Prior knowledge:
There is one protein chain. By secondary structure, the chain is α/β, with parallel strands linked by helices. It folds into two domains: 49-149, uronate isomerase, domain 2, chain A (Orthogonal Bundle); 162-473, Alpha-Beta Barrel (TIM Barrel). Helices cover 50% and strands 9% of the residues. The strands form four sheets. It has a four-stranded parallel sheet, covered by helices on one side. β4 (160-167), α10 (174-180) and β5 (188-193) form a beta-alpha-beta unit. It starts with 13 loop residues before the first helix and ends with a helix.
Amino acid sequence: MQPFMGKDFMLKNETARHLFHTYSEDMPIIDYHCHIPPKEIYEDRRYNNIAEVWLGGRSDDGTYFGDHYKWRVMRSNGVPENIVTGDADPYEKFVEFAKALEMAIGNPMYHWSNLELHKYFGIEEALTPENAKEIWDKTSDMLQNDPNLSVRGIIRQSGVKYVGTTDDPIDTLEWHEKLAEIKDLGFMVCPSYRPDKAINIDKAGFAGYIGKLGEAVGRKLESAQDVCDALNERIDFFKKHGCRASDHGIDYIMYRPCPIEEADEVFRKVMAGETITKEEAEKYQTTILLSLARKYHKENIVMEIHYSCTRNVNGRMFAIEGPDTGFDSIAKTNCTDDLGRLFSALDATDELPKTIVFSLNSNDFDPITTILGCFQSSDVPGKMQLGAAWWFLDTRDGMEEQMKSLARLGLLGNFVGMLTDSRSFLSYTRHDYFRRIACNLIGQWVEDGEYPNNEASLKKIVEGISYSNAARYFGI
């Protein structure tokens, strides 16, 4: 029996242990998609206690922010919402989380949380309600006093070389500008372009957002073409601040091309307060997506697409807590054909950007991978990528399923690997978790005689998936 989360945790064969400890374990991290605030990096924030890091708190505008993964675990254990996202005492929140975590056998949250305690605080035993006070006291002291546990200290000791934050086109990027002036920062922090609000013409708040986008470019936007031009202008601004990637969090992939005049008409109807059909919304959305993709190709910006999520399933709790608070679910979509049509339209004019496609539904892995294989390029190895197992699939089974799909239908050796997609600065242990799972999977194939025990080839594959492929792909 292996010790709990010992040095060979999740490494079940000799080859896996060799690959991980020799090549993968100490590779740097490219965190190309996350949700951590650049302001806190610039200010080098210190946390008072681990509840602030893990469970969140109030932002400057009064909204509650934190890790919705952990909130779901707590709700599943019957914890009242005033403790989960309310203003309860931080220690009380932590204890309730410890009680819930004890029940989370088989859940990756159990591994993630205890990996963080082990890596950053040197705590070997698992968190339980019985040792919660001891762990609370130790972590609080270290967070307040250990120089390696400020925000920048956490990033540096994690071996992170690049952080790609998630930023709205209207953002001033002031914190990125300030970070760029720090000569000894030790890692890169660059904005990633997230234009969802300008695309979601069928969502509440669209008209108000378009007004803000107009303010950002200094003119009123009166057509779909105006929106395209404004978004392209903001891409230029982001590019000057080091932007290497965009991200699109959409419900599903749509492809309903139309003349620009039709998209303009749909835009004007919505801005006038009129109702539009799903088909009309898709015409506008397709117009914007095509325009953005062409601009990404021109500027060598990676296009990331996340879909197959049903947002805000619990209407009552959405009304109370707002979006991104743990009330979303996996969606069943049937849009892979439209994904192919979208790519084909861009490929026809040689304007298809480097693209990473993430689906929250594992049933989409094989169809997506086969479509991506139709659009690979001699210019960029692995130009079209199946994104890492995302969100609810961010588990051992989900990661293995994603990598197996990519291996059997594409080239696993060109995979750009893991991302945190997290709001927590302690989440870099997810890269350790992923690397162990990847090495174990590869090691098993070697030990089963399905791939030769060729040291040079295995080194290239493992180091590539861990770090090198992403560094090359994002130009870092």
